[in-house]
Design goal:
single chain, 68 residues, mainly alpha, 3 helices, 69% helix
């Protein structure tokens, strides 16, 4: 089976974005008027990309499978 390396890179990006999302939820009261308090909110927004990215990677890996 030939390994596709850009899927691994996308998987790393998805893992890091989910970690960012979960660590940003520690600081739950977001306040977008102060930049220091807005950073966890922005990290949470970036982190929401991870789960759909995992679904897309799963679908792409299942498309080229030969099922007998």
């Amino acid at each position: 089976v030939k390994r596709i390396f850009y899927y691994d890179i996308l998987r790393v990006i998805a893992i890091l974005s989910i970690i960012l999302c979960h660590t940003a939820n520690i600081y739950s009261p977001y306040n977008y008027t102060n930049l220091k308090l807005a950073i966890p909110g922005f990290l949470n927004i970036i982190g929401t990309v991870g789960v759909p990215l995992f679904f897309m990677i799963s679908g792409a890996l299942l498309l080229n499978r030969d099922i007998n």
